[in-house]
Amino acid sequence: MTIRDLKSHLAPAHSLAPAVRTGNATGSAVDLRGYDSATVLVHFGAYTDGSHTPSLEASVDDDTYEPVTAADLTGDFVAVTAVGGANSVQQVGYRGPARYLRAKMTVTGASNGAASAVSVLRGHGARRGA
């Protein structure tokens, strides 16, 4: 079996840093310039209460953002509403035309919340290891 190096072909970036969330959060922009693919990883840790719904917004200019439609996603984001969603990772592909992505976490009914983070893995860079 051949072992291949995946690290040299990916460029990870945080959009939402790890935190316990009790309210809505909007992540920082991730620039996809120079990359031909992107995968969004939503990490959930400990869950106490509330509904935690991840989503993605896109922009061509890093100024005006719009929600990403299902047609531009491979897979679906799933709301975490119970302990069963704790300590999990959701993986959703992005195949839209926008240059910038940012994550959103919509939280309702949370007193103590849930730990979450969102990363964007950029791939198929114009330069290896870019």
Describe this structure in words.
The chain contains no helices and ten strands. It is mainly beta and 130 residues long. The protein has one domain (11-116). The protein has a five-stranded antiparallel beta sheet with strand order 1-10-4-8-7, with no helix packed on it. Strand 5 and strand 6 form a beta hairpin. The protein is globular and about 45 Å long.
From the structure above, extract its key features.
54% strand; 130 residues; five-stranded antiparallel beta sheet; 10 strands
Write the layout of secondary structure elements.
Elements: E1 10-21, E2 25-26, E3 30-31, E4 35-47, E5 51-59, E6 66-67, E7 73-74, E8 88-94, E9 100-108, E10 114-125
Antiparallel strand pairs: 1-10, 2-9, 3-9, 4-8, 4-10, 5-6, 5-9, 7-8
Brief rundown of the structure:
This protein has 130 residues and is mainly β. 0% of the residues lie in helices and 54% in strands.
Beta-strand percent range:
over 45%
Secondary-structure class: mainly beta
Q: Number of helical runs?
A: 0
**Shape by Cα distribution:** globular
Strand order, sheet with most strands:
1-10-4-8-7
What is the CA-atom radius of gyration, in angstroms? 15 Å
**Average pLDDT across residues?**
95
DSSP, total strands: 10
> What is the element string, with H for helices and E for strands?
EEEEEEEEEE
